[in-house]
């Protein structure tokens, strides 16, 4: 090709494809092992998508006359798909460290919530924060995620509850989606809690009659792109009837459901230290944990056709770890900062140790 290619990753000890036959997700019975190539290379085109993966000598022969904007020698190292976090609340102001002490003393989540803490505490601080303040702290959190290997993240609103502040949060998420290298799936979560002074029914009516029509308008105008809708379905928050009404109204304007009542669904993501905990505490195998943090998390966001595995035609989102076996990413608890040499998004290096 006259314009060459963006990236060549050469001679990796292992390339962890995760999927090799275009699977949209991996069920548990298919997770005894993952698709892994030994002694392989990978090519990402200038459009940011994977063009070839295969044995190092075959790739070298096929692309011997080609030029690359960047080449990385991966000898002795492993290449894995970029990690996917399918459930986050990364836009907020204030902190709740005092509530951690309450939890350690035996208080439940709902005890804290009903005492005015939890979501409601953060709502007040987020309402007071400027859009620039929210973006600055959000950008720092996304930077931490990227350095830990995450290349696709779901980001919720939900600490506004009022239309004004929910839109402020969604504008911050939209700005990050446009300006930063990490991929973002935006979720409207205005039903994260029942606002003070309203019943759950009144809050649901406000969301259905005011919030969602405004989101539809802003989306049509290209101002804010929202992918998903979320509701906190819990006793003392939104009941099943209100949850169904809100989710159906969201579906009616084209939003995908990604909600709190589904957090233990097997398609949800487990990230670098969380994968270790999933194996130790939840008895998951390492292939199951990695699939949960890649292809299955992407499937939960409706993006497994482009993310979550290393296959020709998918985005060139990947990480390179300084180890001869991919399992060290899970095995070395808390060691990802030492292990991860590169994080790459659409064939562009976004982090280098």
Briefly, what is this?
This protein has 13 helices and 13 strands. It is α/β, with parallel strands linked by helices.
Notes on the structure:
- The chain is an alpha/beta fold and 353 residues long.
- The chain has helices at 56-62, 97-104, 109-114, 119-128, 131-147, 163-179, 200-220, 240-252, 273-282, 286-292, 295-300, 328-331, 336-339; strands spanning 5-18, 35-44, 50-55, 68-73, 78-81, 83-85, 150-156, 183-191, 228-231, 256-257, 318-321, 340-345, 348-352.
- Strands 1, 2, 3, 4, 5, 11, 12 and 13 form an eight-stranded mixed β-sheet that branches. Strands 6-7-8-9-10 form a five-stranded parallel β-sheet.
- Helix 5 crosses helix 6 (163-179), helix 7 runs parallel beside helix 8 (240-252) and helix 9 crosses helix 10 (286-292).
Which residues form runs of ≥5 with pLDDT under 50?
261-270
**Structural class, please?**
alpha/beta
Number of helices: 13
User: How many β-strand runs?
Assistant: 13
Large-scale geometry = globular
Tell me roughly what share of residues is in helical segments: 25-40%
Q: How much of the polypeptide forms β-strand, as a percent range?
A: 15-25%
The pLDDT mean sits at 93
| Measured distance between first and last alpha carbons | 31 Å
Query: What does the main sheet amount to?
Result: 8 strands, mixed
| Order of SSEs | EEEHEEEHHHHEHEHEHEHHHEHHEE
Give the C-alpha Rg.
Answer: 21 Å
